[in-house]
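Quick one - inputs below.
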Amino acid sequence: MNQTTNSKLPKRFLTEKTFQGYFFEDFEINQQLIHGTPRTITSGDISLYIALTGSQHLLNCAETVAQACGFKRLPIDNLLLFHIAFGKTVPDISLNAVANLGYANCRFSSPIFAGDTISVTSKVIGLKENSNGKTGIVYVHSIAKNQHDTTVVEWKRWVMVHKKTPSAPMGIDHIPDLESSVTINQNLIPDDLNFDNFSSDWTACKHRLTHYQVGEIINHRQGMTINDSDHSLATRLYQNNARVHFDQHMMSQSAAGKRLVYGGHIMSLCRAITHSGLANGLWLTAINGGAHLNPSFAGDTVYAASIILDKGHFDNREDIGWLRLKTYGFKNIDEETINELMMEPEQLRISKQCVLELDYTLLMPN
Amino acid sequence: MNQTTNSKLPKRFLTEKTFQGYFFEDFEINQQLIHGTPRTITSGDISLYIALTGSQHLLNCAETVAQACGFKRLPIDNLLLFHIAFGKTVPDISLNAVANLGYANCRFSSPIFAGDTISVTSKVIGLKENSNGKTGIVYVHSIAKNQHDTTVVEWKRWVMVHKKTPSAPMGIDHIPDLESSVTINQNLIPDDLNFDNFSSDWTACKHRLTHYQVGEIINHRQGMTINDSDHSLATRLYQNNARVHFDQHMMSQSAAGKRLVYGGHIMSLCRAITHSGLANGLWLTAINGGAHLNPSFAGDTVYAASIILDKGHFDNREDIGWLRLKTYGFKNIDEETINELMMEPEQLRISKQCVLELDYTLLMPN
Amino acid sequence: MNQTTNSKLPKRFLTEKTFQGYFFEDFEINQQLIHGTPRTITSGDISLYIALTGSQHLLNCAETVAQACGFKRLPIDNLLLFHIAFGKTVPDISLNAVANLGYANCRFSSPIFAGDTISVTSKVIGLKENSNGKTGIVYVHSIAKNQHDTTVVEWKRWVMVHKKTPSAPMGIDHIPDLESSVTINQNLIPDDLNFDNFSSDWTACKHRLTHYQVGEIINHRQGMTINDSDHSLATRLYQNNARVHFDQHMMSQSAAGKRLVYGGHIMSLCRAITHSGLANGLWLTAINGGAHLNPSFAGDTVYAASIILDKGHFDNREDIGWLRLKTYGFKNIDEETINELMMEPEQLRISKQCVLELDYTLLMPN
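Output:
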């Protein structure tokens, strides 16, 4: 045992071992980032996710039903998976991002279950300097895999980050092609999933795929007020360590003066709220695109309304179809105002009360 | 793949797919309601329940002890089971209830364990119009079963609900017989449970059945302050989606101006507080009756005191007996005032500080 | 069934069954205390601990990594174990303590896993009257064992408690020897643990044992604001029932006017914050000493900085070494002020912003 005798206080000196995140100049096209801290998902996460969001989506809370639909066990909610996988990318990509600008092409390719462990990598697919010389946009393609090296979810996102040293733009302008939606094909249906025996009694909701029409607007009419502890717990659960969500002492110096709610928490609240009207939208299989239109804070009450964009069937599948929709999140406004905004898209996107636009695809019993 | 080309925005129109709950006229005697969203209970729920309530009841937190008392595994706390089962009934019965008037005849007939899935149905057993022509009382008998179709808990409750269209009473006056207590017999003892090897060291509490006397009042002397996040998390965990608990934007228009704490959360806090003085009341086997006497809000500090109503033994069982008691929940008052109220029943029930009256039966080592 | 006919209300009388904690006179040297309520740790606790603290320490969240490091399953975070074990001792030792004065010689001797059940006993090892005649100090040695009677953690602590009846000191002055640090030897390495295959990719942190120098100061630069619900949930999860943490109605009469955050929650927040800069400090194996220098309250933002005190290797182990360090917790101050305080130890300990001093030993890949 070579234990140093340590009777005297050591001479003290400050070092810099704390990773403070990358700047625009640190990224290059095709760069591979291996994100730290793989995470095993447990049945504790399942319960916490329900407690944090109020989710009631059936395939993620009733194992008997999941088994009747072909799964061996209760699958983890895809948004819970997304947030945990997303959290892994934060230290390397968005620790000090100016803004999360958008998501695209998020595809849930394989279900995961309690006990599975998620590892995440990202590849830089685009870089674009801003004309102000101070910031730039980084585009990444992130892939989460389980312990068997199977891809479980992948997505693209773009964030605005600071330059280390502001300077005249050097002409970096590599914007990637981003598909406007995830391609619809049978790969969107998880292996094993079938709705052959589906009963509307399971959800107490009669509305199946056939009952939804393109252009239809549904006001989900539930409100969920965010408490500081709710969003802090959720964001810590996802091991997302962006300081803006947690550090009130720092954020009291910001324009808003308070902690920012993690945008993913708003996505989950809206998805939970849509249960009322979309209870049979049992499996969120893809996010075609998304944007956080305004920030949310503790004390805000979140509402949601959806518009059906499209729907269809899969070849050789009589049990299951797909519904593409946009769900909008709102804060602190009344039902009637939400209805008015939903009818006028040009008002909708500029409303200060609109916090989320999420374009996604659900699987639903025919 | 018949994916529609969707280059144009669809024509928008509002529809009504969001279920907004039933009105008095929607119910009829003997109507059967199959509640949606069966729920698998996980070990995450066990931990969350402890974190949310502070429960220390031994049979629900120590698997070694549960096994020494005959269970194969750690049984789920019966109040956690009750709240989850109750939550299932909310959309169909009390989504927009004016008031939850009372409970009776709640019997926990079979223990459940992590991994079990709960499904709930209700039958309408009574209907009574109010003379104001605006509201009526609905009485239901609800039954929760596990995945093997075994009844695990059943209860009766009555709620006041709005009429869809106010009108002069039509003479609907069907009030069911409600037993004043659950019958005491050996069916109240879960299969497998025995206290043959019980040791007071397990609870560090010397008081067994023999030490309690009818008429005895115990002030449990612990206070638990409710935070907004605590009660929101609990109520979401139970998938109880009554808006009054969550929607501050809406509730700011209510008389109190704030979100109402789910009454079941108060029941759980009081049960947890009674651990101090009733630690050997190991198994809550029946709720004879209960009422929420005043509302609770975040910021309130809850206290509890109990009076022993009755006690007794079971035939051929030397290990185990039963204790019937009433626990009262209080808010924001001092120990001495609680003692005074407990000694004067007529003051107790009209006190604005009294939030709960719960008449229940515990199993306890002899 | 000898069910008493209970038609009349029983005559009411107050009794005293609620245990209110021991006073100084109730303790004697070598007294053994068997603490109640053994507790089974579940995967729910794992997730809640992450959600409550933001912990990202790899061996406690990634089962694949834990297995690559020799464990059969995911081990429970040692601080989570400590808090649960500590909570068991509160009713008998510190329910009404004036102050928790310090910890020493805390050693985690065997890892535990989801499903294990913890039982705790304490022995009184020291007693010292204070000269004011009103209080005294009680020193205890506490031991937590799993269901196989294997010691999993043990520690010493001392608390100031009230005398039942103030009186002139009787000369009780038995202060135990408390080692200044846990002895470093191979017993500090859990059976099975090895870092032979360790990859820095797992933590995305390059700093291994060789990179840390004695005297080095690391400012971890993350802030975590405490919400009332966070600390209440954590403290209830640990079944620690000291009223000062929960009862706002009572605490509004205290000097601070608010609930006190459980000191162990601050320990966990600081350990979580140190991930940034000490991500490869994978296993907390011993706490040499600790003190809560100032109280914390909801609304405080906690920061942490560490100084490396010592480091070394183990005989015959090329994979693993040890790092002894002190982590200080701070509240509501800026990074620069923390750096200044860390460089001036005499200022540090008297700062009102310094809330924790924790001297501990980590295992780290060489």
